[in-house]
């Protein structure tokens, strides 16, 4: 039978509450302005800390704004020398103390390269050495438009994209096509027929710098373009990468061979093909407008080195809104500009499409 007095029992419970308060409250982060948030550490990546708050949901906090951090659950911390230690942690005097099994480690807060909870560490480990058949994700877009009555037109578009992203590299495959047919002067004829596709590979050199190689193919009947074959490579730089925004810039050189169905000049014996060396530069940008809507933009400028003053421009912009985990509604805009098209052809081709997007992921 317990003989403790009520006052003693109260003091014991209060003491236990103070001692175990971290376990009750979960992980804690205190900002330099005095604000304190409780919940769960997700990861520290680059200059930001991802934190799941009990009251406010998912938060992205600038690492420079963090004053103290504490967790009674194991957290994997990447040290300045690239090694990783795991254990409960806390910050004291501007240093992070990790209670690793068998030993404790300490590092200045500013020198923490990365930080992950158990779930994020499992995802990171999976990305290190996966088989080539693993980690693929992407989507298929389908668009269809038809008009009947005073005019008769049919337009069909498809777009395929797949990517395999690991901790060290990225493979991308892409293919899109447009086919349109209409009744013109009581005669059914094709009004658009184009196919574009290719692949790209990025290999990280460090957390910001990467090597890029790519190979593009293009056919456009109404540009009289039988085939454009482009292969190139260069260097890229991850300007920033967060859960909300990502920006890459890149530049390099490429080789472009074009074959046309008509001669490229009126001169006797004019060739139907041409070869060019090019210098290219551009960017890839991703912005998550909300939890269900994302914007993606890609720009490439190809300056012709073989014929100075000529150039090509590829610009793509797309917005997709998730209706379900695997289903979205998308709007895409594409612009292809060339200063020296085939004779009688226009310099600019614009394409605006919308339709459903079917997503897949491993």
Describe the fold and architecture.
The chain is 8% helix and 64% strand. The chain is mainly beta. The protein folds into two domains: 6-128, no CATH class; 136-361, Autotransporter beta-domain (Lipocalin), CATH 2.40.128.130. The strands form two sheets. It has a twelve-stranded antiparallel β-barrel with strand order 10-11-12-13-14-15-16-17-18-19-20-21. Strands 1, 2, 3, 4, 5, 6, 7, 8 and 9 form a nine-stranded antiparallel sheet that branches.
Helix-strand layout with pairing:
Layout: H1 6-19, H2 21-25, E1 27-31, E2 36-45, E3 48-53, E4 57-62, E5 66-78, E6 84-92, E7 95-98, E8 105-108, E9 114-116, H3 118-128, E10 136-147, E11 153-165, E12 169-184, E13 187-204, E14 209-220, E15 225-241, E16 245-260, E17 273-288, E18 293-304, E19 311-322, E20 327-338, E21 348-361
Antiparallel strand pairs: 1-2, 1-5, 2-3, 2-9, 3-4, 5-6, 5-9, 6-7, 7-8, 10-11, 10-21, 11-12, 12-13, 13-14, 14-15, 15-16, 16-17, 17-18, 18-19, 19-20, 20-21
